[in-house]
Amino acid sequence: MNKSATTKDESPSRLIDARIKELDDWRGETLSHVRALIKQADPKAVEEWKWRGVPVWSHDGIICTGETYKSVVKLTFAKGASLKDPSGLFNSSLEGNTRRATDIHEGDELDEQAFKALVRAAAALNRSAARQVEAHAMSAAVACRSSGEPAAYAEIDLRNLGGLNAAAGSGEAANQHYAAIARIVRDAAESMTPDEANTYMAKHST
User: Which residue of 63, 92, 161, 179 shows the fewest CB atoms closer than 10 Å?
Assistant: First the structure.
C-alpha cells in the first residue's frame, strides 16, 4: 500500500502519534507535551490532520495547529487575534487580524497554565460563534415554517447564510456540527405549526 493511501486510512490521532515518533527529537517532545496540555485544558477537543500533514485541535472550530519546522514548533491559534493574552505567549504572526502564533524553540519553556488558558478561551470563542449559527438555524426553520414552505427549504436557507464555516472551520468537526444544526432546522420546521412560528418570530424579533 502506498503512503498516501495509508495516510488516508489512518486516524488523525495515529498520524499525530507517528509524527511525534518520526521527529524523535526536542520537536517531537514539544509536540507531545503541547498535545497533552490541550487535552488537559479541553478534554473534548478533537484531533484532526489537515493540509497534508498538520496536526490540528478543534472544538466547534479550530483551536490551534501544531506545525513543526527545522528550528521551531509553531502553535497557531486560528482566532488568536480575538483572544486576550496577558502572559504574552503569542510571539509570532502578530501582524494580521485573525491568527496569532506561539513559536517554541529548543530549550524554551512554555508557560503551561497560560497556554491552557488560551486553549480554553479559544474553545469558548468557537462555542460562542457556533451558538450564533445555531440561532440562525432556528430562525431559518421558523421563517420557513411561518411562510408555509417545505422543511427542506430551511436547510437550504441555513446553507445560504454561510455562517457555518466561520463558526466551525472545516473538516470532520465542522461536518458533525453542521449535521447537528441541520437536524435542529429540520425538526423545528417539521414540528412547529405556523402559529407557533409566528409567535416565536414575534418574541425574538425585538
Answer: 179
